[in-house]
Amino acid sequence: MRAIVLSAPGPVENLEIREVPVPAPGPGEVRIRVKAFGLNRSELHLRLGYAEGAKLPIVPGIEAVGVVDAAPGSDLEPGQQVAALMGGMGRTFDGGYADYTVVPRAQVVPFRSELPWPVLGAVPETLQTAYGSLTTGLDLRAGQTLLIRGGTSALGYATAALARDLGATVLATTRQPARLDELAANGVDHPILDDGTVAARVRELVPDGVDAALELVGTPTLPDTLASTRVHGTVCFAGMLSNQWTIPDFYPIGYLPTGVRLTAYSGNAGNLPASVLQSALDRLAAGSLVLGPVTFYPFERIRDAHRDIEENRVSGKVVVRTE
Questions:
Q1: CA torsion sign, 176 to 180 to 185 to 187?
Q2: Is 190 inside any structural domain?
Q3: 269 contact partners, CB below 8 Å, separation of at least 6
Q4: Boundaries of each Enoyl reductase (ER) domain copy (predicted)?
Q5: Same domain assignment for residues 86 and 158
Q6: Quick one: which of 61, 98, 103, 53 has its CA closest to 82?
Q7: Which of the four, 17, 155, 202, 296, has the lowest number of CB atoms within 10 Å?
Q8: How far apart are CA 40 and CA 261, in angstroms?
Q9: Which pairing describes strands 145-149 and 210-215: parallel, antiparallel, or unpaired?
Q10: What confidence tens digit (pLDDT) does each residue in 6-20 have?
Q11: d(C-alpha 173, C-alpha 152), whole Å
């Protein structure tokens, strides 16, 4: 089979398409014939050498969609549609950047859909993180205000869609003026141009500060995001688009505004209920839910896909087709 192998951290040229043996599933494992896989920022971090605990060489990819090829002793049947995500995929064992992947049953979520495979490939991990950030990370409620810092990322668009669906008012940021209209077209109530500090603009729109904020850029913008949030409001740290995720000499009392809560979210396949995935796919098919723009690449252009993500050339989700 074909597999994309990362042999060492570095430039996109370190991603090599190789012919390797088809992996054999062991007890409690599922072999999936991969039809498409979404790209995620964490895979860029892996390639750049920022993934703690990863073993190289490895087939990257923290998610994939496809059909069950073999599942010895499992409740899953060959040919069944499934998504696989997280749980060490592409970090401690080979992930989704391949024609076949073998994953533990616990990391597999079954579904049924007639949507094209590349469209399906955009959903699992983005939906999992957006859903978990809003529920576990922020406990967002209808009628509240939400700021998304990093709104034109795949996660930003998906979170905006789910938050609007919940009945929240959404503010979202972008550093590129040309993308303000794109945010508005994707359901954002208040697109905001981000020059590094947006708290003053946010408080012009919501004088007391937003009820909730999702930090997707990382530690450089976190203090300003905290300053945009009301007393007893919550900021959830769930992304690192800036590739910066640590705070030197962190002094909580000096760093955190009085009364503003800071949480984090990083979920797993078990945090994406099958019913939530199925409902989202059904609504995508019906046109009643849009999770944001998607850019598709063939398998052979994996380096172009990684390069475009790294250089912020694309808005929304990137998906690679295997066929």
A1: positive
A2: yes
A3: 84, 85, 86, 87, 106, 107, 108, 109, 128
A4: 10-320
A5: no
A6: 103
A7: 17
A8: 27
A9: parallel
A10: 999 999 999 999 999
A11: 8
Say whether 233 sits in a helix, a strand or coil. Answer: strand
This model's pTM is above 0.70: yes
Decide if 98 contacts 80 (C-beta within 8 A).
no
Query: In this predicted model, what pLDDT tens digit does every residue of 12-70 receive, in sequence order?
Result: 999 999 999 999 999 999 999 999 999 999 999 999 998 878 999 999 999 999 999 99
Residue 256's Cβ-count burial label (10 Å; 0-12, 13-18, 19+) is middle
Encoded tokens for 152: 């034109």
Q: Residue 52: phi, psi to the nearest 5?
A: -65, 135
CA–CA dist 102, 30 (Å, integer): 5
Q: How far apart are CA 224 and CA 232, in angstroms?
A: 16
Q: Name the strand (E) or helix (H) holding 308.
A: helix 302-310
- Are both 130 and 247 inside the same structural domain? yes
Residues 6+ apart with CB under 8 A from 91: 46, 51, 53, 54, 55, 58, 62
Looking at the structure of the chain, the number of domains it has is: 2
Residue 175 corresponds to which tokens in the numbers above? 């550093």
Judge contact between 280 and 127, C-beta under 8 A: yes
pLDDT at 245: 78
Percent of residues, the chain, with pLDDT higher than 90? 97
Helix (H, G, I), strand (E, B) or coil at 297: strand
Phi, psi of 85 (to 5 degrees): -160, 150
Kindly state whether residue 194 falls inside one of the protein's structural domains.
Answer: yes
Give the rounded distance of the alpha carbon of 68 from its chain centre: 23
Q: Is the pLDDT of residue 229 over 90?
A: yes
| Per-residue pLDDT tens over the stretch 291-315 | 999 999 999 999 999 999 999 999 9
Domain that holds residue 60: 2-123+292-321
Q: Read out DSSP for 226-279?
A: HHTEEEEEEEEE---TTS----TT--HHHHSPTT-EEEE----GGGS-HHHHHH
**What does each C-alpha distance from 228 to 53, 108, 124, 144 come to in angstroms?**
34, 38, 30, 14
